[in-house]
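Format notes (please read before filing issues)

Several people have asked whether sequences and structure tokens are stored in separate files. They are not. Every record keeps both together, in the order shown below: the sequence lines, then the token lines. Line labels are part of the format and must not be stripped during preprocessing.
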Amino acid sequence: MIQVQERHRGRLVDNLISLYLLQGLNYLLPMAVLPYLVRVLGMETYGLVAFSQAFAQYFIILTDYGFNFSATRFVAQHREDRRAVRAMFWQILVLKTGLMFLGLGILWGMVLAVPRVRHDTPYLLLAFIAVAGNVLFPQWYFQGIEKMRYISVFTGIAKIVSAALIFSLVHGPADGLRAVGILSSGTLLAGAMGACTTLRGIGLEFEWPSPDSLRATLWEGWHLFVASASVSLYTNTNVFLVGLLAGNVEAGYFSAAEKLIRAMAGAVGPITQAIYPRISALVVSSRAAGLALASKSLAWMTGSSLLLSLASFVLARPVAALLFGAAGSGSVPIIRWIAPLPFLIAISNVLGIQTMMTFGLDRQLSRILLASGILNVVIGVPLIYLFAAQGAGVAVLVTEATVVVAMLAVLKRHEIHLSLRGLLLHEK
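Then the structure lines:
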């Protein structure tokens, strides 16, 4: 028994290290490539590159559906059943491919109907390559079997190759299309490596999924898809609203502040990714054990994230000056408004992903996130109109706090209790 516990603990530590290496690559390499692209492409061409990538991100959300959570949970609970895992792999691949072609049809419809989109068709089509890469990459499988090092290795290789090609082949505004193609192809490279590795692990035998199994898997991920899509209403929409209602300068202030704070919030993200499949596996044999680990996770994550939030508030001015220069002074009050986000997001990750999802409360979670996304837009518009970028900061803060309160209320209603100390936990 002790050996099993030690093996699980060692696997968890290994996953955390792998995910933090991935997190470092996710931050460091883009921070190296971004200023280079801005300088060599010029702001106008770089803006077009960024626009095409942002547009493709909506289709990545569509093809991700809720599979990174629903399929992760399935694999974590059936990892010893190779045939079941293989069947799930083909179900997910078929469904994601179908969603990709649906997205391509939507994109082509917009090309025909919207002049702005039609004008940028080459950029958008090259950016769409990233959607194909996302379809291939079985992140849910690696998370389910708790071998996140593969995620780190494959995405890390892809980012390094992409960065090297950008520095070697992109030298001026005329290379904008080349830049989009390189960045998107990196995702495709990671997807191909991930798919090949997964097939070696589960076997190459192909079984065409039955319509009933496809419908069941699609329905299983529906509420999680609604949840992930809803999150974009209060993570991606505010910059657009600030730019629309308050102008580009205020949008720049808000974007700079939010990127900084969400990067700090992401520092505890790997803990969520590593612990989620472990809790999903535990609850199959012992609900109390799963809840105990979630409770300990809550204690770990709230402690570390509270320090990050306090540091963000206290050091807002010197950090903004260091990162953004003199022009960054306008971001200081916004940083302070949204400084609690790392703390609130850490709590909501434990309550939502590690607890509500693992105990089958997907529908309730999706409703909370959808309602919160709508709330963000409803209160954000008047607040931005009155207070510009600071109004958006207030809207985000209120929305994230509402998410936490709503999750706590749902868990209390279902008599699932977590202790901040991580020592005392009970389920009535």
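For reference, the curators noted about this record: Residues 22 and 152 are 5 Å apart (CA to CA). Residues 1-6, 422-428 have pLDDT under 50 and may be disordered.
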